Amino acid sequence: MRSLVIRRWNDLREALTTLPDVRTWLACALVYALFLFVAATIGLASGLLRVDVAHAGVDDAIRMAALLFIQPALFEEVIFRGLLLPRDVRSMSRSHAAVVAGLALAVYVASHPLNAWLFRPQVLALFSSHAYLVLTSLLGLTCTATYWISRSIWPSVVIHWLTVVVWIELLGGRARLNL
């Protein structure tokens, strides 16, 4: 157990200090584009996403984007990718990697309604809705894929951050979250 904790900690340190090259960023961008297509299709069809530009001031939008970078993007990616997943997926068999990724994804998805229940009960219905959980699962899969492609936390942080900022500021998230 101690060696697993040390490996995860070392993986996180390496993931935080590794900056991907341009080719790797482009590969991660392709994965993100696929996510955006699928998520937009599901989100718009389900009614979870709707074009609704928030009428926040520039200062408020910048403050919101900075806060969202820290939580959920950086915080959740450090926990659910950096600490729960090995940095080098090639260090284990495919079946073992699938199990580890599946467990990390399940914990990531379950954390959303749990956090709503504990800290923001007014959004529990949203955070436990089928459409929200499907999109959260897709985002988690996308972040896992880009973490393993890049062996860096930064592509998944950027993807997570951009997704949440766009949802809150442009696709009705601010109204749904009562922000």
Could you characterize the architecture of this molecule?
With 179 residues, the protein is mostly helical. Helices cover 78% and strands 0% of the residues. Helix 2 packs antiparallel against helix 6 (130-150), helix 4 packs across helix 6 and helix 6 (130-150) packs antiparallel against helix 7 (154-170). The protein starts with a helix and ends with a helix. The mean pLDDT is 96.
Outline the fold blueprint.
Elements lengths: L1 H16 L4 H25 L11 H26 L10 H26 L4 H4 L2 H21 L3 H17 L2 H4 L3
Could you give the distance between the termini?
42 Å
Query: Which structural class is indicated by helix and strand composition?
Result: mainly alpha
Largest sheet: none
How many individual domains? 1
Q: Could you tell me the radius of gyration in angstroms? A: 16 Å
Question: Beta-strand percentage?
Answer: under 5%
Keywords:
179 residues, mainly alpha
Short description:
The protein has 179 residues and is mainly alpha-helical. The protein is 78% helix and 0% strand.
